[in-house]
Amino acid sequence: MILRRIYDDSLAQASYLVGSSNGDALILDPNRDVNQYIELAEKLGLRIVAVAETHIHADFVSRASDLAALTGAALMLSNAGPPEWKYAFAEQAGATLLHDDDVFEIGELSIRAIHTPGHTPEHIAFLLSDTATTDQPMGIFTGDFVFVGDVGRPDLLETAVGIAGSKDESARQLYASLQRFRTLPEYVQVWPGHGAGSACGKALGNVPQTTVGYERRFNWAFAVREEDEFVRRVLDGLGEPPRYFARMKHVNQQGPAPLASLSRPQELAPDSICDVLAAGTVVVDTRPAHAYGAGHFPGTLNIPAGPALVTWAGALLPYDQPLAVISESEHAESITTRLHLIGFDDIDGYWTPEVLRAWKTRGRTRETVQKVDPSSLRQMIGQDAVTVLDVREPTEYQAGHIPGSVNIPLAQIERRIGELPASRPLAVHCQGGTRSAIAASLLQRQGRTDILDLSAGFRGWHAEGEPVEDDARTPISARG
Number of C-alpha atoms within 13 angstroms, CB side, residue 117? Predict the structure, then answer.
């Protein structure tokens, strides 16, 4: 048997290839970058004969149907759960629909579908046995059901999709699914669909796999033996899901646009940027925050092309407006691919940073973001000359924050901008400087010209020994 984990850091998402000794292979939970699976199978001398997924994903565009069509593989989808959570495109795609305890084979490998509702109603896990050795299970692909040290969040139908009152019922379904999981042999390996950084759970571990026995002993969810207490705990402290989750649910249930409809990024003429912005296109400047802050085109939004690009693009960018990016030409295709992963398909093209140099040489004014250090910010606070905006999550803020600061998480700023006073400058900060730089660009794009960025973040503020308080307004001594 061959097992490969294909991990996407930007999504904190795992797909899997499982190959049998006869050369047949299964791909599980593929994302939109289908070529990586085809190339890996070819490298290993395998032919993809089946493509399956654990559930209707909320955090990326699935390409299970495209991959099956490209390779001639069977498409295996869940038929569990209520009618409203069936795959709308399953019949058209010729999918094989799986029910609880259905079994299919890939060479000598036997794969059993197990209905594990809770994270989503239709969720299934796949229990794998290598019958060349034994008919007993080797491992289970848990998707978004059980993670390393955590379980899938059961609130998304309510908080992301808008089905009021569903999260309590989903939490109870998750509890029941976990009791079934308990009955598996301790030695069974657990291969989850996400790692640390995913918004599909609260505190996912960063190791790639675990075992049933380990999770039964050390995963918090298995230590809770009373259902009502589990419901309370699993729903407590969940952050707001990324805005794009609702869109992804709809896209993946109805069926995404074919890959053939997506074009490669084209470089745009430098003189076109004003017209493109005026026409309503959202221009994302993907340069590092320090380069953007030193000078950028008015009206653009800064989301650096790092690991967090997908997260913040999904949280902040609209799906009903075209996009264009500013990027070095050698990175443009990679950035476009990242945006395609979460369904941003209407991308006009890109400009290189030369567009900014050309703008400057013509005598046009570029915007900048003024930086502020902890000492200067403390003096401004003492003079009541600034409003401090903390764009971290509420749990971060409650653990310690700058006295008198206002907490609005980055993902909420656009809809809550009216809560911010317009009479004095805004000093924006996060933990280390990444989110605050994005927030500063967003506020400038909304017309605020009095933005300061505490680029050292709360970490730098604290390290300098500046005053800090917790959610009870209790002073906290500085730590190095």
Answer: 20
Non-local (6+) Cβ contacts of 24 within 8 A are 46, 47, 49, 50, 106, 107
Cα–Cα distance between 177 and 116 in angstroms, integer? Answer: 5
**Separation between Cα atoms, residue 115 and residue 173, nearest integer Å:** 11
Residue 430 annotated in active site: yes
What pLDDT does 480 receive?
A: 23
Which of 75 and 479 is assigned the larger pLDDT?
75
Confidence of residue 474 (pLDDT cuts 50, 70, 90): low
- Alpha-carbon distance values, 40 to 8, 45, 192 (Å): 14, 9, 20
- Rounded CA-CA distance 84/271 in Å is 48
- Do 383 and 295 fall within a single domain? no
Whole-model pTM? Answer: 0.87
Give residue 334's domain range. 262-361
Dihedral angle of Cα 65, 70, 74, 76, to the nearest 10 degrees: -20
Name the one residue in this structure whose structure tokens are 């930007």.
Answer: 10
Judge contact between 137 and 188, C-beta under 8 A. Answer: yes
Q: Of 302, 335, 361, which closes a domain? A: 361
Quickly count: other Cβ atoms within 10 Å of residue 384's Cβ: 9
pLDDT over threshold 90, residue 357: no
Identify the CA nearest to 370 among candidates 442, 303, 294, 301: 294
- Whether residue 285 contacts residue 292, with contact meaning beta carbons closer than 8 Å, is answered with yes
* Single-letter amino acid, residue 411: A
- 356, 430, 440, 468: which one is catalytic? 430
